[in-house]
Amino acid sequence: MEQKIFIIGLPRTATTSVCVALLDLGIKTAHTAYTQQTMNQAQALADTPIFCDYQALDLQYPQAKFIYLQRDSQLWLASIRQLLTRMYVNLQRTEGGFNPTLKRCYKQIFQPLTLENIASDIFLLDCYQRHKQGVLEYFSTRQQDLLLLDVSQQDSYATLVQF
What DSSP state is assigned to residue 13? Predict the structure, then answer.
């Protein structure tokens, strides 16, 4: 089984940019993974449900490597607020709307998901910090399996390639 690479940064932390970089490196990459077929065929996977299910994926793929994407909090806040506002109605619908996995992941990370909370910097930053802290604690004894990457840093591409 080929080694998997899981990109576990939250949405709006440059998951698309890192996926493009991995594709440029010749790595089969999926920006989302809602099916087992996608999970099987891609070597690198990002976004939903990866950012939410990284612990289960680590158990399922014990040789996997993980990339946690970081972004300046002020830039992330504006971007995630815009995304969550656009997605809100479809995330709340009980019938239809988005894929059930997408709904589960967003509701788990951004709980409770309300319009008031989406408007709150404190709430959104708490969600970001809680996710980051969970990742750091989970990998605290396996730092060799986790890359912390901020794509705004000048050496980020070289760091990604080396990892």
Answer: S
What is the torsion angle, in degrees rounded to the nearest 10, for the CA atoms of residue 120, residue 126, residue 132 and residue 133? 180
Handedness of CA 115, 119, 120, 123 (dihedral sign): positive
Torsion sign over Cα 148, 135, 8, 61:
positive
CA distance 76 to 8: 15
Distance CA 58, CA 79 (A): 28
The arithmetic mean of pLDDT across residues 116-143, rounded, is 98
Q: Kindly report, residue by residue over 53-74, the tens digit of the pLDDT.
A: 999 999 999 999 999 999 999 9
Across 104-130, average pLDDT: 97
Q: Within a 13 Å sphere around the CA of 128, how many CA atoms are in the beta-carbon half?
A: 23
CA-based nearest residue to 45, from 158, 37, 77: 37
Q: How many contiguous H segments (helices) and E segments (strands) does the chain have?
A: 8, 5
What pLDDT is stored for residue 95 in this prediction? 86
Mean pLDDT of the chain: 95
